């Protein structure tokens, strides 16, 4: 049984927001695995190999089913060529290349049910101002929604000004907030209207 409520699983777009070590990455991977057997992960800070290994560990699914846009391997000096399941970008700051590689994946995935995740928007904010990342996120949510592919992004709530985090909430249908309380990881769900849910341990 899923720890995630229907409001999250049924959403077109979800932002996971919380402080370090509060389980954002776990929920990110679990949600992608619930949505699809073939997720696309835009990874700003982990190599494709690490992304797939983490996905297997967290979800119990086959990491080979994950398509990765890897923004770190080339930056570390390892200039590998693209493969059908791994696309390389020079750095996480190159939003244009990320968009091009993502379009390639969309075009090669005709007829496939996929879901898309970006881990993390915080890393992108190290290169660009919040308005630019907001526009990038709007484009991504629009593009994935047009394909019927759900989208999840992650942001570190304590890494940025409160106003920046709230700005990034806007393109998303649902926000999942995480925290650590008495050594327990907890989340709650905040939809566009109404009060947030109660905190749930996971």
List the helices and strands and how they pair.
Elements: H1 6-9, E1 13-18, H2 24-35, E2 40-43, H3 48-59, E3 67-70, E4 86-88, H4 95-108, E5 116-119, H5 121-124, H6 130-147, E6 151-156, H7 162-169, E7 174-181, E8 184-191, E9 200-201
Parallel strand pairs: 1-6, 1-7, 2-3, 2-5, 3-4, 5-6
Antiparallel strand pairs: 7-8, 8-9
Helix pairs in contact: 2-3
Tell me the distance between the termini: 12 Å
Query: Percent range for helical residues?
Result: 25-40%
By secondary-structure content and strand pairing, the structural class works out as alpha/beta
Mean pLDDT: 95
Supply the number of helical segments: 7
User: Low-confidence stretches at least 5 residues in length (pLDDT < 50)?
Assistant: none
The strand count comes to: 9
Q: Roughly what fraction of the amino acids lie in strands?
A: 15-25%
Q: What is the gyration radius calculated from CA atoms?
A: 16 Å
User: What letter string, H or E per element, gives the SSE order?
Assistant: HEHEHEEHEHHEHEEE
| Biggest sheet, spatial arrangement of strands | 4-3-2-5-6-1-7-8-9
Morphology? globular
- Main pleated sheet: 9 strands, mixed
């Amino acid at each position: 049984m899923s720890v995630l409520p229907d409001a999250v699983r049924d959403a077109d777009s979800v932002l996971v927001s919380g402080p370090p070590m509060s389980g954002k990455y776990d929920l990110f991977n679990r949600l992608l695995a619930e949505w699809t057997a073939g997720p696309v992960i835009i990874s700003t800070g982990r190599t494709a190999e690490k992304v797939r290994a983490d996905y297997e560990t967290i979800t119990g699914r086959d990491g080979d089913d994950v398509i990765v846009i890897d923004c770190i391997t080339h930056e570390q000096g390892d200039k590998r060529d693209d493969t059908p399941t791994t696309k390389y970008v020079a750095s996480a700051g190159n939003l244009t290349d990320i968009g091009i590689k993502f379009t390639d994946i969309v075009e090669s995935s005709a007829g496939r049910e996929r879901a898309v995740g970006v881990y993390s928007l915080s890393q992108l904010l190290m290169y660009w101002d919040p308005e630019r990342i907001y526009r990038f996120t709007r484009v991504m949510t629009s593009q994935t929604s047009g394909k019927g592919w759900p989208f999840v992004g992650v942001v570190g709530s304590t890494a940025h000004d409160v106003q920046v985090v709230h700005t990034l909430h806007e393109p998303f249908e649902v926000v999942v907030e995480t925290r650590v309380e008495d050594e327990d990881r907890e989340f709650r769900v905040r939809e566009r209207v109404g009060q947030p849910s109660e905190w749930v341990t996971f």
